[in-house]
Amino acid sequence: MSFLCLGSRYLAIFLICASFGYTSAELETKVNPPEDFEIIDPGYLGFLYLRWQPPVSLENFKQCTVEYELQFRSIDGGKWKTVITKNLYYKYGFDLNKGIEAKVHTVLPKQCTNGSEIRSSWSEATYWMPEQGNVDTKIQDIDCVYYNWQNLFCSWKPGKGIRSDANYYLFYWYDGLNHALQCTDYIKNNGKNVGCRFPQLESPDYKDFYVCVNGSSNSMPIRSSYFVLQLQNLVKPIPPDYLDIDVSNVLEVNLQWNIPRGPIPAKCFIYEVELTEDDTPWITTTFDNELYVIRTSNESQELCFSVRSRVNIYCADDGIWSEWSDEECWRSDTWEETLFFFVIPFILVAFSILMTTCLLLFKQKYLLKMIFRKEKEAFPHRTSLC
Ligand SMILES: *[C@@H]1O[C@H](CO)[C@@H](O)[C@H](O)[C@H]1NC(C)=O
Ligand SMILES: *[C@@H]1O[C@H](CO)[C@@H](O)[C@H](O)[C@H]1NC(C)=O
Ligand SMILES: *[C@@H]1O[C@H](CO)[C@@H](O)[C@H](O)[C@H]1NC(C)=O
Fold it and tell me: What is the pTM of this model?
């Protein structure tokens, strides 16, 4: 019995304390969430503005700077990304194939509250492009290559189940353009746009490059596709040329080639060298446009190599290998000796046999002619006589 009394007394104290604590905390530290939170699409194909206004009744905290904690993610359930800012906006590149959800709250730093940091409740907003058409109507397998860090090409396959009147259009935007631009030089197949040759672009690298391929058809809606590229990661250089192979030393070989021409700085290349020593190939990579190699045998007869180039990790996170260069070969003296002592005499012998045969034939013809003429001279009036 006494235990029960004691228990209920403690409970009452606890409840009083808890409710007092709660109300006092609420009284001292309440702050409102930001107002008018919205996600704005300026038409940059994925680059969105998140914007809000300061919370109402901030007067109590005039003397300190209010901060905002912003969180956002794709609606399909990606990880929340968190940003803390004193501004009233934030700009970020999103994947518009998916919806976006975002939330923001006011944060009063410790120095403003004499205690711990205070946060408001969340203001929330969502955004998604109107999803029109079946998923199958989207383009497929887009492939973009930035040739020699100069010429951008993208190609794709049309979606499935589209009608003959459907066609696709490519739009792009990156920081530096006033608005999204449409492709001006489409690659066509059976009258349908299946790719784009981009014009010369002004500093489009090391930033998000937004692409949208949408479509139109009178008979059905076509689903749009969005892509965010980093052009420096799509570079395919031209192959190195002017290969040179120097075997002045017995065992050591020096391979050299020209840095591919164009805007890619020399320090941005990595090369893959394939060297074939008497039919045994091996591959190695180097950052320089030359390579010293040790021959596996000083008796090898033939050394051949070719090179291909790619942008290295110091200039881009990714890249595409160039085509292989033409092959350059070196052949040993013994190979030349073989040429000298076997092939050349063979040719000489063959040539002399040919000459002798010709001479003999000629002589035979000449002899026949002589005989015939002599015959003619011996009987010059044979026809008249008869
Ligand atoms: C913080 O404490 C000071 C005095 O210690 C007081 O004047 C001020 O009103 C307090 N501020 C808040 C937000 O409680
Ligand atoms: C494709 O996207 C561009 C850029 O957003 C837009 O201007 C255009 O109207 C769209 N076309 C179609 C057919 O949806
Ligand atoms: C090649 O190497 C062998 C031994 O490794 C040596 O005996 C020979 O003289 C070398 N030949 C030449 C041409 O240097």
Answer: 0.76
